[in-house]
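Ticket #4471: complex job returned nothing on first submit. Input attached below:
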Amino acid sequence: MQHLEPSIEQRLTAEGIRLTQGRKSTILAIASMDGPRTAAEIHARVGDLVPLSSLYRSLAVLTEAGVLSSQHSSEGVARFELAEWFTGHHHHLICVSCGSVVDVTPTDDQEHAMTQLMEEMASDAGFTVSSHRFEIEGTCPVCR
Amino acid sequence: MQHLEPSIEQRLTAEGIRLTQGRKSTILAIASMDGPRTAAEIHARVGDLVPLSSLYRSLAVLTEAGVLSSQHSSEGVARFELAEWFTGHHHHLICVSCGSVVDVTPTDDQEHAMTQLMEEMASDAGFTVSSHRFEIEGTCPVCR
DNA sequence: TTCCTTGCAAACGATTTGCATTGGA
DNA sequence: TCCAATGCAAATCGTTTGCAAGGAA
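Support reply: We reran it on our side without changes. The output follows.
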């Protein structure tokens, strides 16, 4: 993604969010890195163009608007990535050695099996399922 | 658990960890609350007996010793619970409305299916799996 | 007695916020 | 033009740490 995807631009406009230089570079930076990234990592990419405090504000706004999604890594730091409506549904492989995070997209069969498992496990407790997160920890090819 | 389980006591002794009053009440407090708990929640239970800084130190030591396990909730705060060798392997149902976390223990069939899925998804990326975390988000019976 | 553990207060890192200024629609 | 977005600095929150005093083995 060299330029902002029209679908993202549309979404921002639809949400009444101004498309500033800083936000453009923020989104492009996130798109250019694979796997969810921390504010610090993103800041290293966008450099002096966007100070940290502004970056945090943009990340919050973009997440709120559904352009980004965020989670917290095992160390407790927030990580951001493009939302699933854009990237497709996926899960994360996390290297316990170097901390790198890689996306994995389940096949339809796998996703179906996972959804079924989830429903089974949740229904006993009376929960209505809205989403799930599956994190696989292991050792990446580089660290092995 | 009114008194500290012998197996836990043994483990602490084996790890060369002193069993102090504060640590006893900390473990008992965690055992008495279902699902993983934050330091603040635990502190509210043990009260003035254990100041926050000492509590954090104990939690770190007990986690290191394998008596507790910790993760970070979606808001980025650390949550502690008894380790799986004691409670058994399980996953978490998280209420998106009130934030409560409930344990769910998969059946052998479910766990087997999950392990298989995980291996499939990880092997493509060349990862060697060491553990997994499955978090189901939804609405609890109380909030529904 | 000997170290490990505690308690306090101060330090930390990640994230948030108040306020005056700037820039996009 | 006008209000949302920015930049800076200061504040906040969860968590960690230095150091002297206390307590388990």
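The radius of gyration of chain B is 17 Å. Closing as resolved unless it happens again.
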